[in-house]
Write a structure and sequence with these properties.
Elements: E1 3-6, H1 10-21, E2 27-29, E3 41-45, H2 56-64, E4 72-80, E5 85-98, H3 105-112, E6 117-118, H4 125-131, E7 134-137, H5 143-148, E8 151-165, E9 172-176, E10 186-191, E11 196-204, H6 214-229, E12 234-249, E13 253-254, E14 257-259, H7 275-289, H8 295-298, H9 300-318, H10 321-331, H11 334-341, H12 347-359
Parallel strand pairs: 1-2, 1-7, 2-6, 4-9, 7-14
Antiparallel strand pairs: 3-5, 4-5, 8-11, 8-12, 9-10, 10-11, 13-14
The structure holds flavin-adenine dinucleotide.
Organism: Propionispora hippei DSM 15287
InterPro entries: FAD/NAD-bd_sf
Pfam families: NAD_binding_8
């Protein structure tokens, strides 16, 4: 078997590590200069919205031998709507870095890999087909997937974000659900040190969004973050992503080509969580190559999560600001806090089951 992995991001590296640990050496290509060669940003893992693993980092290490160190645990999540604020507390999840820094998840994965990554690759899929028996497509988008099979697109999203300097509790993240700032979308703040945080605004690009003035929304959001964090934040870096696509491909594998990460469709549409499912898809594809488990079967759980997440998204999009105020008030109750901290249940699955008759 001659295996090529196209893309040294989360899914490609998780796949490469799993193969390597079990005696197969893939060839890993990336078209950038180094691992994580993009803007640095903070991302989060929230077990309550992932598959029903009580702790994704424990699972990655104990079951798959992949070791990741977050920058911090999340012990508080502050939710804001237009008029309400609620705080959830407990062991809620993890903050981690992405991008070209040493501590980013992709850098940590790359350090565990013995196989050398071939950077600045100009190979395209067709060229790899000629030289390899098996190809793992892990390029982080649907470019190649769409040439090979159907991708069911659910939505595209505009993301505008910034790194801000200020004073932050490194274990507290915040999110805003307010249609006057992010229509049918959301905003969040993720600290990645005591002095720096990411703030991001994300909203879907539905036809009516053409009327929106992105700069006005951003100004409104920035003002709101400064007000809610009670400080004058200073922007030190900025990014903008348009047409970020959320969708799902029909098949996890066609012939000897495997689709993993965003090439499969592991970006969960409700709130944009994709790190854990992308790594799992890479691991599952490797397990198939190793003759351990069938990827068509193991990928089913990823498809299910996608559909649960889409149902949640449709529900959230149906809420006006008064409804969002109610939702945030409910989230602040002790019962909600207990549910969110209960790792034995998959909240996403339960919410989805309840909402499917209306939004599924
Ligand atoms: C702004 C933003 C915030 C996010 N926040 C969160 C969050 O808080 N929590 C969460 O769980 N998820 C979050 N996500 C989603 C998460 O980052 C993705 O789901 C995850 O990175 C997808 O992994 P991947 O392996 O598919 O792609 P990537 O990790 O992006 O890797 C793709 C790799 O392929 C390489 N590549 C591209 N083209 C080629 C080519 N032609 N040849 C060779 N290599 C190529 C790239 O250089 C890159 O290294 C966020 C995403 C964005 C954009």
């Amino acid at each position: 078997m001659k295996i090529a992995i196209m893309g040294a991001g989360l899914s490609g590296l998780a796949c490469a590590l799993t193969l390597e640990k079990n005696g197969l050496t893939p060839t890993v290509f990336d078209n950038r200069r180094c691992v994580g060669d993009r803007f640095v940003n903070g991302e989060i893992l929230l077990p309550m919205l992932e598959q029903s693993f009580s702790d994704p980092l424990v699972r990655l290490s104990e079951v798959y031998g992949i070791y990741l160190q977050p920058t911090n645990n999340i012990t508080a999540l502050t939710l804001h709507s237009e008029n309400k604020t609620a705080q959830l507390t407990g062991q809620l999840g993890f903050i981690n870095l992405r991008g070209r820094v040493e501590t980013s998840f992709e850098s940590q994965l790359a350090r565990q890999l013995k196989t050398k990554i071939l950077f600045n690759s100009t190979y395209d899929y067709t060229a790899l087909l000629k030289e390899f028996t098996h190809i793992i497509l892990a390029v982080g988008d649907f470019r190649y997937t769409e040439e090979i099979q159907r991708v069911k697109s659910s939505l595209t999203v505009t993301l505008k974000g910034a790194t801000v300097a200020g004073n932050f509790n490194q274990r507290e993240v915040a999110a805003w659900l307010d249609n006057t700032i992010a229509p049918k979308g959301y905003c969040y703040l993720i600290p990645f040190s005591g002095k720096e945080a990411n703030i991001t605004l994300a909203y879907p690009e539905y036809p009516e969004a053409k009327e929106l003035n992105q700069n006005k929304l951003w100004d409104r959001y920035f003002e709101r973050v400064c007000k809610d964090t009670r400080q004058n934040l200073r922007i030190t870096d900025q990014f903008e992503i348009h047409h970020y696509r959320m969708g799902i491909s029909d098949m996890p594998r066609i012939g000897n080509t495997f689709f993993v990460g965003n090439c499969l469709g592991t970006m969960m549409p409700a709130l944009g969580f994709g790190q854990l499912p992308s790594m799992l898809s890479g691991i599952y594809a490797a397990q198939d190559l190793l003759g351990q488990l069938n990827y068509q079967q193991t990928a089913k759980s990823l498809y299910q999560s996608y559909h649960h997440s889409m149902t949640l998204r449709k529900f959230l999009e149906s809420l006006n600001n008064a409804n969002l105020d109610t939702l945030v008030s409910l989230a602040g109750t002790p019962l909600a806090n207990r549910l969110l901290n209960n790792r034995r249940i998959s909240l996403l699955k339960i919410i989805s089951r309840l909402l499917t008759p209306l939004f599924g």
